[in-house]
Amino acid sequence: MAAKWYEVVTGSIEQKKQYKQYKARVEALPEPYRTAAKALDRYFMTVGGMTDGETMIQMLSDSADLWERAAADGTPVRDIVGEDPSAFAEEFTAAYSGKQWIDKERARLNKAIDDAGRSERE
Length: 122
Known about the structure:
79% of the residues lie in helices and 0% in strands. By secondary structure, it is mainly alpha-helical. The model has no long low-confidence stretch (mean pLDDT 86).
């Protein structure tokens, strides 16, 4: 019972464990893959806008998989991200269809405009 209450307040304990595992995987990467993975992580957290924890954890896990494979194969970082790392990051996040904070704002804008239109007709 206490665990359920705690999760309601703070979020999924399992997701927190998975996030810590992801962070450990990134820390274990050799350079320059660790730096690239951390930079993408920062971008995902800042610009990605995910509010669905499960989707975010899956995306981060897939990112760690990508960098681990690249390190194992010796693939250069630029061969992974291309000439525009932000475009790569945005394409990467687009592949994950979780709820994003912008969804809430879009709904809020639509409702406000609908309400404004209704008050004009009254």
